[in-house]
Q: What sequence folds into this?
């Protein structure tokens, strides 16, 4: 399992796609984004246009742990991205965030093939001014720490350059 972290437009998704594409296909892309507006639809289309066969896409804005568990054994899986998933869970007032985080961690630990997770590192900025944004930053940081503990490799991408924080270079 590899955790790829980086800021917005850092090159983290492209780097993660390259890790998966270096493995024998077919590859599974688990997308967590939801197209709520034109700008988000454009972002999703941009990501989709970068991927050609043998990519298969599964939409999992909320049921991320289940999507990872259902991946065929041995199939390389790319999840992009955890912070969008976290947003989706946090905005659902009925969600059990601790329970869903535990289910995600368990699915990642039990993945039956190569797994690459992409997430935004949001802890480098200033303290947000509103409570929801502060909670999001804190929850993302806690999730990243827990995933980094079980990951074989952790990579921080800055300006398109991967920096290996844990594990062997790819």
A:
């Amino acid at each position: 399992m590899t955790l790829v972290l980086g800021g917005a437009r850092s090159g983290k998704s492209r780097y993660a796609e390259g890790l998966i594409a270096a493995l024998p296909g077919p590859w599974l892309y688990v997308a967590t984004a939801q197209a709520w507006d034109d700008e988000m639809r454009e972002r999703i289309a941009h990501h989709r246009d970068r991927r050609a066969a043998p990519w298969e896409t599964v939409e999992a804005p909320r049921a991320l742990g289940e999507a990872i568990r259902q991946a065929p054994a041995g199939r390389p899986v790319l999840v992009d991205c955890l912070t969008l998933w976290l947003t989706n869970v946090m905005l659902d007032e009925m969600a059990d965030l601790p329970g869903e985080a535990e289910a995600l961690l368990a699915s990642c630990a039990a993945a039956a093939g190569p797994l690459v997770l992409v997430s935004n590192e949001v802890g480098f900025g200033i303290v947000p001014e509103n409570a929801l944004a502060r909670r999001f930053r804190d929850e993302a940081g806690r999730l990243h720490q827990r995933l980094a503990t079980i990951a074989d490799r952790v990579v921080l991408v800055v300006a398109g350059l991967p920096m290996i924080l844990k594990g062997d270079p790819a």
Summary: The mean pLDDT is 92. The longest helix spans residues 131-150.
